[in-house]
Amino acid sequence: MAELLNGGCFPNLAEAKLEISHHIAYYNAERRHSALSYGAPNHFETHLQTTFQYCPF
Length: 57
Prior knowledge:
Mean pLDDT: 79
Number of domains: 1
Number of strands: 0
Largest sheet: none
Helix content: 55-70%
Radius of gyration: 16 Å
């Protein structure tokens, strides 16, 4: 979230909410994470769910 907020400001609350929701969508669906073998979190979660679908948590 720091990347989004670094020195920025928003003209109003609605604009802030919109930008934050876009950032969260990008962060979870597109941004690659080194801790996840350079995959996106959504892809990693889907992979876990299909790989371990028979393991109760």
